[in-house]
Amino acid sequence: MTKISDFLGKNARGNVEEAILRAKDNQQYHALLNLTEKRALERADAVDRGEIKGRLAGVPFVVKDNFLAFGAPTTAASKMLENFIAPLQATAVEKLEAEGAICIGKANLDAFAHGGSTENSAFGPTKNAYDVTRVAGGSSGGSAVVTALDIVPFALGSDTGGSIRQPASFNGVVGVKPTYGTVSRYGVVAMASSTDTIGTFTTNVADAELVMEIISGQDHKDMTTLADFFEPLESVQPGLKIGLINESMTNDVDHEVRDCTLRYVERLRAAGHTVDNVALPIANHTLAMYYIIVPAELSSNLARYDGIRYGYRAEGVKTLAQLYGQSRDEGFVTENKRRIMIGSYVLSSGFFDAYYLQAQKARTLLVNEFDALFEKYDVLIGPTTPTPAFKLGENTADPIKMYLADIMTVPASLAGIPAISVPAGLSESGLPIGVQLVGRMRSDAQLLALAKSLEVS
Amino acid sequence: MQRLAQLSSLALADDEIDALQIDIGNILGYIQQLSELDTTGVEPTYQVTGLQNVWRDDKIDDYGIDRDELLALAPESQNGQIKVPKVL
To answer: Long-range contacts made by residues A437-440, C-beta under 8 angstroms, separation at least 24?
Structure first.
């Protein structure tokens, strides 16, 4: 697979033209919603003239289409924002551009990042890079697939409950969900503000370190960003103590996924680390917490889409109330409506204590269980997903079945701790399987160094 | 369902209501399991990094965005104002 270094020191126009050609040759995957061709070529020429320099000069990349970026609409894969032209760019995009990277297009996602398969995109699903009859995963499915198909060497995504790690796992690439607050979310369409994070898709760990180093850092435009802390490590500390999470290795998990995870564990041991089985009993309740807290937060965040100031406005309505209701009904997909209504329910008076408050208390129990484990262990490991990529249409009729694909990834999101998915092999039928490494708050660099040390080049 | 739709500002079509009612019933049934957890005396976690009172200087920052650009995003505007249907 291609690496970022393959694009450095080359003619930037050539890099961009070839990437756009690859994007056009792979349209059957429907990984991209729009190309930013004109702007990308202009920027490439500026790089070639020496006007833009940097660590990523002339390197093409793609952003998930919930990042505000110039050169094409920012749709969040929704009818609501189908024609929305961003008046500003996301901080992460600005930082990459300042290093000379060139955005060539906007990747498909589940509308407003609500989903785990990209099937909730208002513009049709993305197909898996290894099997077009299967899902790309989601919600950052398009970003994972453009990376897996070598259209670009890296892509940005957002991860609220697994939306980077799960599609990375389904498409055999490296996916990074950093510590909450590592990367500014300014200019990214908000979903659930207490767990939304920005991260990367790359073909290898060293590239993830480079892109994370560039996009991370405190930003006065996002008050939740942490003081700068991310700095890649040359090598991993020897003899790490690693815990294999029992709850992620039960018989409910596909046996090939478990086998791949155990083979990765053996490689960790062979590299001199110790691996013990550990318990995270609250894990069985985290999906329920997630599907209370996240709908609550997103129902508030999505209140801004009212057809007034920007976005889709319904035609032929007489009153303001009808305008809100009709614009939202027509502008959102079914999954958006489900989640907004669940959010309204758990926040409404009479149910608030039983659902929302109880979930936030349960979240404390989860944080406490993680803290206790991290007193003894440096890193936790388990599969990223219970199965390899499922068939298109397989889970669309049953929202809870779809939500269960996130069961391994939501705990780190609710606790705000870093987690990465790295390729760990293929199933017998040739589908990628990923393992997830989870660390304590701000240990992102250590997780990446560990994964890098085990990488088969 | 009508009340939930109203709270959510969603003018649902009739054929949507039945399907959503089943899904939402199932999801509420699933998340109900949290009531099994004993959380007596446990404080809620609303945010995870412990940041408090992040201050900035009391200076206006337009973030480089132009008023006319923002107005142009509105579906309908007139005389520098966003236009909406009558409220009452």
So the answer is: A437/A379, A437/A380, A437/A381, A438/A379, A438/A380, A438/A381, A438/A382, A438/A411, A438/A412, A439/A374, A439/A378, A439/A379, A439/A380, A440/A370, A440/A374, A440/A378
Q: Tens of pLDDT along A296-332?
A: 999 999 999 999 999 999 999 999 999 999 999 999 9
Three-class DSSP category at A23: helix
> Is residue A163 among the annotated active site residues?
yes
- Is the CB of residue A249 less than 8 Å from the CB of residue A258? yes
Contact of B53 with chain A, judged by CB distance below 8 Å, is answered with: no
Residue (of A253, A177, A239) closest to A421 by Cα position:
A177
What residue of B is the nearest CA neighbor of A360?
B44
User: pTM here?
Assistant: 0.97
Task: For residue A219, give both structure tokens.
Answer: 């930003």
Instruction: Give chain A's mean pLDDT.
Output: 97
- Name the H helices within A26-140: 37-48, 91-98
In angstroms, rounded to a whole number, what is the distance separating the alpha carbons of residues A424 and A435? 6
| Tokens representing residue B78 in the block | 């007139």
CA angle A179, A180, A183 (to 5 degrees): 85
CB-based contact A65:A33 (threshold 8 Å): yes
Query: What is the C-alpha separation between A288 and B6, in angstroms, rounded?
Result: 25
Query: Min CA distance, A87 vs chain B (Å)?
Result: 7
Residue A381's H or E segment, with its range, is: strand A379-383
Strand partners, A219: A222
pLDDT, one tens digit per residue, over A218-272 is 999 999 999 999 999 999 999 999 999 999 999 999 999 999 999 999 999 999 9
Residue A160 near residue A195, CB atoms below 8 Å: yes
- The one catalytic residue in A140, A163, A327, A453 is A163
B84/A325 CB distance under 8 A: no
- Among candidate residues A442, A418, A447, the one with its CA nearest the CA of residue A177: A418
Contact between residue A135 and residue A128 where contact means Cβ atoms under 8 Å apart: yes
Residues 6+ apart with CB under 8 A from A51: none
- Tell which of A334, A337, A396 to mutate to test the B interface (max B CBs under 10 Å): A337
H/E stretch holding A427: none
A78 is catalytic: no
Q: Report the alpha-carbon angle A27-A32-A33, nearest 5.
A: 110
A337 is catalytic: no
> Using a CB-CB distance cutoff of 8 angstroms, which residues of chain A are in contact with residue B76?
313
Give me the numbers of helices (H) and strands (E) for chain B, helices first please: 3, 2
Note the Cα A355 to chain centre separation in Å: 26
Helices (H) and strands (E) in chain A, counts: 14, 11
Report the 10 Å Cβ neighbour count for B52: 6
How many CB atoms sit inside 10 A of residue A237's CB? 12
* Torsion angle defined by CA atoms of residues A206, A209, A214 and A215, in that order, rounded to the nearest 10 degrees: 130
Q: CB of B55 within 8 Å of any CB in chain A? A: no
